[in-house]
C-alpha cells in the first residue's frame, strides 16, 4: 500500500479532530438502530400486513415466514430527465434478480428529480438547490417504513444523488448501493454546441439553428455528456466506493448496463460471501476526502463544494472550503473533459475513465486505500473495468495505460500540478472558482464593476452593448436565503462573447453557475450572501475589483475606511416578491428562511 501524501493525511486528521463529537454521536445512533431485532419480526402484525399487502403471495411468504432480506428501492425516475428515463424499468430487473436470490425488493418510494437544463434561467430554477433537501426528505419517508434490510438508490443527476445520499446517511445502519443509468451516446460535440450558443447570444443565428444544435447535443436517454454536476456525481460515487465498480459511464441499453444493475442487487445483499457494510460506516472522513480529491483531480463541478459539505454533515463529518483549497494545492489535474477540454464523458470512459483516475491517485498516495466500500475488495476494485459475456457473467479487467493522453494522464505527467478548483478570500468574503477551464492569461482580472440585481438585468445590459469593455459583472441577491441560489448558466454565452472580443471579463456572485461553468473567470458561492449583509451588497458601479485566482484573493480596491463605512444595499420589496411567488416558490419559503450559507452546505435541516 502506497504511503499517504502528508497533506492528504493532515487534512484528513484535521477533519477527524473537528468532527470528533458529531461523528461519535452519529455512529452511536447508527449502532443503536442496527442493534434492533429484525424489523418484520418486531413490527406489529398490522404494520407488517400493510407493508406486504400489495405483493404476490410468494413474495409475502419470503418476507413474513421465511424472513428473507427485503431490499428498498428508492427511485428518482421520470422521463423528463433523459438520464433518469431508463430507470423506469430498473425496478422490474432488480425485483427479478432479488427473486432469483431468494430475497425480495420493493419500491419503497419515488423522489422528485428536476432537470436544471429545462429550468435554466427560468423561475423554476429557484427550486433547484432546495430540491436536494426535498429529495433527502423523500428518501427518508421511503425508508421510514422500516421493513428493509438494505437499500438501492436509483438516481443520477445534479441534486438527486446528493439528496439520495443525504437521506440514506440518516439511515446509516442500512447497506446501500447506488444504481445509475449511464450517459447518452455522443451527439453534437460540446464545443460545437457552445459555439452556436455564443453565436445566438450575438444574434448571428436564430432560434431554429440554436434549437437544432441543442437537439443534436441532447438527443437520447442518458446523462448529458459534458462533465457537469451529474457526471461529477458519478465520479465521486466511484471514488467513495458506493457503486458497483466501473458502473458510472456505461451507456443505457447496453447488455452490460443490465448486468451491472443486477450486480448492484447482489452487492447490497453481500452475495460474494462478505456482507455489504452499512453506509454510515462506509462514509467516514477518509471516504469524504477521497471524494474531494477525485473532484479536484478531474476539474469537477463547483456545485459539490456545497453538496458534499451537506453530505459530510449528514454523516457527522464537518468539512469546509479550506479543506478543498489545501487539497487542491497537491492534487494534480488528471482529466480534461468538457468544459475543461474537448472530450465528452464517453471519450473519458474510453480513455480510462474513473478507474484510471482512481488508480493514479491511489498509486500517488493521494487517496486513502484502506477504506471500506460496498464491495469486499475495497477501493482497488474501482480501478478496474467491468466486462460481461453472453451468459451475463461479469468480470473486471485492468484498465492499463491511458488510451488518450489528451483526455486522461498519469499523476506523474498531469495537465496541471494542482487541482481544478480554488477558494478566493478578501474584503468581498469567501468564494470559489473553477480554474481548470479558464485560460492561464485570465486567472487575474482587474476591472470596473457593473452591479446587477438579477440575471435578466445583466443579459439586458449585454444586448444593449453596455458591457462592451473590461468589466467585472456583479450579480447579487442570488444566495440560498434570497431566492434559493439558482444556477446562472444563461450568463456563460454572453460573458464568453465579451471575453472573445478581447475584453477582460469576470463574474462575481453569491449565486451558482452550472456544473459546466466555462472559460470566463467566475467567483461564485460568495459568502456571506448579499441578503445576509454580505459585502457584495456594498459594491457600486465603477468600483474596481481584483480577482486573483493565482494568489486566491478577491477584493474591491476601495479605501478600507470608506469600504467599512459604506452602507449595505437592501433588496427592494418588488425584488423579494419576485423571488417568492410563482411555480411553487411559495412552498419553499421555509427552506429559504432556514438555509445556512453555501460554505455550510446551504443545509435547511440543521
Compact description:
This protein is 39% helix and 13% strand. It is α/β, with parallel strands linked by helices and 606 residues long. The strands form three sheets. It has an eight-stranded mixed β-sheet with strand order 7-8-12-11-10-9-13-14. A four-stranded parallel β-sheet has the order 2-1-3-4, sandwiched between helices.
Write up this protein.
This protein is α/β, with parallel strands linked by helices and about 600 residues long. It folds into 3 domains: about 5-35 and about 70-115 and about 130-185 and about 220-400, no CATH class; about 35-65, no CATH class; about 420-600, IlvD/EDD C-terminal domain-like (Glucose Oxidase, domain 1). It contains 25 helices and 14 strands. The strands form 3 sheets. An 8-stranded mixed β-sheet has the order 7-8-12-11-10-9-13-14. The chain has a 4-stranded parallel β-sheet with strand order 2-1-3-4, with helices on both faces. Helix 10 packs antiparallel against helix 11 (about 205-215) and helix 10 (about 190-200) packs across helix 22. The radius of gyration is 24 Å and the shape is globular.
SSE arrangement:
Elements: H1 6-18, H2 20-34, H3 39-42, H4 45-52, H5 57-64, E1 70-75, H6 90-100, E2 104-110, H7 116-119, H8 128-143, E3 150-154, H9 160-169, E4 176-179, H10 190-201, H11 207-217, H12 229-240, H13 255-268, H14 279-282, H15 285-297, H16 304-314, H17 321-328, H18 345-351, H19 353-363, E5 384-388, E6 394-398, E7 421-426, E8 429-434, E9 444-452, H20 455-464, E10 471-475, H21 480-483, H22 492-500, E11 505-509, E12 522-527, E13 544-548, E14 553-556, H23 560-565, H24 573-580, H25 589-594
Parallel strand pairs: 1-2, 1-3, 3-4, 9-10, 10-11, 11-12
Antiparallel strand pairs: 5-6, 7-8, 8-12, 9-13, 13-14
Helix pairs in contact: 6-13, 8-9, 9-16, 10-11, 10-22, 12-15
